[in-house]
Amino acid sequence: MADLLWDDVKCFFDPDLMGSLPDVRVPDASVEDWQAVLDLVVEKGWKCQYSEGESVLPVPRAEAVLSRQTDAECPDLRVWPTADVLAIFRFYTDDEVDFDVDLRELQGQERLDVFCGFLREIGRQLGKPVLMEPEGDCGHPVLGFDAEADRVVLLADSQVR
């Protein structure tokens, strides 16, 4: 059974309302949580690409990425849970796992199910919430993985239409 139904949440997948790249994050994270996400990517066999600037490199340990010099370029990890859905993890800080998704790739029930499954896998791996917020609107999640409920739930009123 689907965690969320497209007709109930499609307003939160409108790039004009949410921004095309909403913020998805795991608050109160640690270096160990980052490493658990990297391990999950390998475990699930998701296609990925790690890069620092223009250089594509092997995926390092989280500790190495997060201990880089403060003036170093922020690396990213592109992860494809399916061929047509991309999540871009950005290693800004060790206390929050942060990634973007492109709402234009997440239209319809099938893609919503992929996205919810991805959030669920990360949330279960970490035992923590995974929150989606409008682009640049930190602190106002609209949906996310609820660790206690063990599913993705709506966190805001969908009557914004």
Structural summary, described in words:
This protein has five helices and nine strands; from the N terminus they run ααβαββαβββαβββ. The protein has helices at 6-9, 15-18, 31-44, 62-66, 109-126; strands spanning 23-26, 47-52, 55-57, 76-82, 85-93, 96-101, 130-133, 143-146, 151-154. Strands 3-2-4-5-6-1-7-8-9 form a nine-stranded antiparallel beta sheet, covered by helices on one side.
Observed structural traits:
5 helices, 161 residues, alpha+beta, nine-stranded antiparallel β-sheet
Q: Topology of this protein?
A:
Elements: H1 6-9, H2 15-18, E1 23-26, H3 31-44, E2 47-52, E3 55-57, H4 62-66, E4 76-82, E5 85-93, E6 96-101, H5 109-126, E7 130-133, E8 143-146, E9 151-154
Antiparallel strand pairs: 1-6, 1-7, 2-3, 2-4, 4-5, 5-6, 7-8, 8-9
